[in-house]
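User: My collaborator sent over this chain with a note saying "see what the structure looks like." That's all I know about it. Can you take a look?
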Amino acid sequence: MAIALILVGLLITGLPIYVCLGLTSLIFFYTTGTPMDFMVRTFYSGVNKYPLIAVVGFLFVANLFQKAGITAALVGMVKRFMASFRSGLAVITIVSCAIFAAVTGSGPATVATIGGLMIPAMVVARYKPRFAGAVAASGGALGILIPPSNPFLMYGIIANQSIAELFTAGVVPGLLMALALSITSALMLRFFPKMSTDGEEEREYQKMTVLEAVKAIWDAKWALIAIILLLGGIYAGFFTPIEAAEVTIFYSLIVGFLINRTMTVKDVYEALASTLKLTGTLLILVAAGFVFARLLTIMGIPQALGRGIAGVSQNRIVILLIIMGFMIFVGMWAETFSQIIILAPIFLPVVTQLGVDPVHFGVLFVVCAEIGFLTPPMGANLFVGLKIANVTLESISRSVIPFIITYVVVLVILVLFPQISMFLPNLIFR
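Assistant: Without extra context I'll predict from the sequence alone. Here is the result:
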């Protein structure tokens, strides 16, 4: 209780979360007489993790893809294909987000890139701006579920799980979520037009011939090769996620400089600068988070929490749903990496005692984090979407409610049927 009070009190002051975690740990280590060099060693061991190189690599890849023209080519192909279906721009946006997520692993980056292209198009097609922003924000949350995923990387480091298995486990749930969001968009447009449009959607239906389909694929060939290289190489066992990130970096440079010729040295510098800023923040957070996790272990918090939850129910499903509800609530106030660093060491021992596979729990954890992207006051995707759509937080928050419900429904399905996420890992790795 004392740990929670001190941490909450520090968070209320507005201090960065890594400062709050570090100060809380320092206070307890000092008052209990723990040698300070123990805290320093824990700081170092927290960031001395080889898989962290993959996080940096995928952040750099996401920045390079935009500079090299790979992102624009991928979105162009999706738009052309989806124009041949009477599905509307909302579904095109969701599908584009799902495909773009397969090369970035970042939620806000997906919203910024796909939303920047599709939200203006939806507004021109007579979508309500707040609904257009909500569609892009909810689709962008797929960025952390469909591999490669930076939160999966971080969870794998914290939980000491195979990153390749986590990536594989996210494929089917990611596709299921994309399908569910697409259905939700179509239902909103069909049955609740006053909430989603300013009239019948104005969109030109373009029938596609086989030749046009081949041309659309050919125009996006370098983007498709990037996806095959990145994910196919990991799943086929040709290289590890870390090696996949580095190979894709060199591939992006070759495409940008020698093939598309859209990249300059200045672009590479800007991509590096952006990556380093994010990496620096992440490393400080990881170091502080490891110290805080060690404090929780020493104080016996996970064990006590496990006994408390076990006292509520002995049913695995009920306990998982309670944990998921708690993590969704925390996701309203904390960003994804902070949630993983703080909560994974607490809940992982609890769920493993119940027989829950840590890889499956990682998928559930990331889905909860996706919902956090859509819930204020944190809601990173909402803030990106509202800026592009030029609407208020209140209006976009109302419009995103159906999509949040969709995420929750799919989360419950994944809790009830763990085979959905574990089918591919069991098939490939076990």
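A starting point for your reply to your collaborator: The radius of gyration is 22 Å.
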